[in-house]
Amino acid sequence: MPIPRLLQQQNPDGGWPYRRGGSWTEPTVYAVLALAGAGDSAAVERGFQWIRRAQRDDGGWQVRPGVAESCWVTSLAALLPAERLGAERHRRATAWLSATTGMESTVLYRIRQWLLGSQTPPEMTAPGWPWVLGSAAFVSPTSLAILALDRENQLHPSPGLASRIDAGRRFLINRMCKGGGWNHGSTRALGYETGAYPETTGMALAALRGCQGRATDQSLAVALRFLGQCRSADALNWLRLGLAAHGRMPAGYTPPSGIAYRTVPEVATSVLADGSAAGKSAFWI
Amino acid sequence: MTRRDWLAGSAAAVVATGCARPVPLAQPETTIMRAPAYDQRLYDIVRRVVASHCVAVRGRSVVIKPNLVEFEPASAINTHPLLVHAACEAFRAMGASQVTIAEGPGNRRDTLDLAEAAGYFQTIPGFENCFVDLNVDEVTLVDLPQRFSKLKRVYLPNTVLGAALVVSMPKMKTHHWTGATLSMKNLFGVVPGGVYGWPKNVLHWAGIHESVADLHSVFPRQFTLVDGIVGMEGNGPIQGVPKPMGVLVAGTDPVAVDATCCRLMRIDPMRIGYLRLAAGEPAAFAESNVRQTGEPIAALAQPFALIPQFRSLRLESGA
Asked: What is the pLDDT of residues A77-104, one digit of tens each?
């Protein structure tokens, strides 16, 4: 019963916690997306009010009130329909995302690396998105930013957005683990190969919707293997979304019994994964 | 304010609040206990080692911070849940008003699923009710008492900030960025991923050794209990190889405990950057300046395999 559970967990301020306590942007956006898809209106509007209040002057969103810095959750807010969020708020969110990159792709960092004689290989310079400003780009925030910008680009095509989305996808392809799939974004550490995680593999595949090629094929195979093995709600939700983005969800699939949906994002993204399987996605048009 | 002034101030504050064993200013004590396996004997061993350090917790809240990293229960990545439960029981028996287990994993977001896969739900009765995911806890912006990195302040979880005693329970492991990961590096897990992301890359950009030393300065009131029953050697902290050591290492001074663990691993603690930074004075954790109780280091030390980049950390014979 995910929808009643989401309704029950809404805080008096209109936002949602991860499990309990104060409201955070991530669970609030996911809950709003899930409830909006289910047709609820009052709780959704209170959620939108919370989200609108949380936007910062620079156009981005903070992870929660009191943490005064715009960051990766701006991608989530930008996934919301502009007509509900507010066209100007949405435009500023898109602008904030378009202007944000990981530290490793900033001009200042590249000059520093050049001066130190340790240039980044060209194939690793495609700009992705960081969790927070002043740090490197990673797979999850990059995937979410691509999903948000791609949705906007489909509604209002723009060469600037298309170029940034393309670069973000190259970032993902370059950080795919050997054999397919993704972890947080580090494919090698001190010369050692690192393995893929199910949740980031699903998320990256969702961001690569419409992209074909060896990398995508390998990673879809990895995702299908993970789908049959893993027991984490977060991982299963994102695997379902990633596979659905490529039309590769096994027909008639249902998550194994006994999976614990413990957090609001887990409950909400399970609703969104169900929607994607039924051909109605909050993440893409 | 000098480090000594600050430590003296911290110590006075801790004593004033009734905790009998603040960060020691004199000779720190570490205890090495034999613990051959993850079995019922741990309950007695842990109770004795905690009691021997006179950690005053009666009527106070304790937060136990294990090292939970990956979904592989058969590996030596995570602090073993039976040891964590033994610590919970020991502190409860000593009258702690509340014992909370808290962790904020650095790479994986689904903390409770990770804990379940690591055996915590199965081993620790009522685990879900006594556990806090530090990645999404309520937070407070804290000025760093000492600044070794470029960070001036950091958001930290209220659960940990409000604890009368933080118990760091790391796994004894090599680490491919810092050489060794022990009680001090374990504090990376208190930095909230909900604020800084997964991984907490801001700390890497600020300097890993420097950030470890920064965090150490925030939590002077610690008890440390290192899971060295089966550690990890080689390409730790995730991809290394299990290293059966059969030891627990405990103490109230994280720098001294970590230095002792390094010696057990045959790693030179003087070459671990965060230890040098946090101690200020390398002599502070020289073997002769640490009061060693329980088993002698020499009786239990075994060289942990080191990846080529860290072979220079090897503790020379007799060093």
From this structure: 999 999 999 999 999 999 999 999 999 8
Region A125-144 average pLDDT: 95
Comparing CB atoms, the residue among A67, A103, A263 nearest residue B155 is: A67
Q: Are B242 and B174 in contact (CB under 8 A)?
A: no
Of B31, B118, B113, the closest CA to residue B83 belongs to B118
Helix ranges restricted to H, A39-136? 42-54, 73-78, 82-85, 87-98, 107-116
Evaluate the omega torsion of the peptide bond into residue B244 and state whether it is cis, within 30 degrees of 0.
no
Whole-angstrom distance between the N-terminal and C-terminal Cα of chain B? Answer: 33
For residue range B278-301, list pLDDT tens digits in order. 998 878 888 999 999 999 999 999
Q: Using the 8-state DSSP alphabet, how is residue A174 labeled?
A: H
Closest CA to A47 of A23, A73, A20: A23
From the list B113, B197, B199, the residue facing A232 with the nearest CB is: B113
C-alpha angle B290-B292-B294 in degrees, rounded to nearest 5: 165
| Residue B107 contacts A where some CB pair is shorter than 8 Å | yes
Task: For each of the domains in chain B, give its residue range(s) and CATH number, in order of start.
Answer: 28-313 (3.40.50.11440)
Q: Which residue has the tokens 């806090």?
A: B132
Mutate to test the interface with A, among B75, B201, B202, B205 (most CBs of A within 10 A): B201
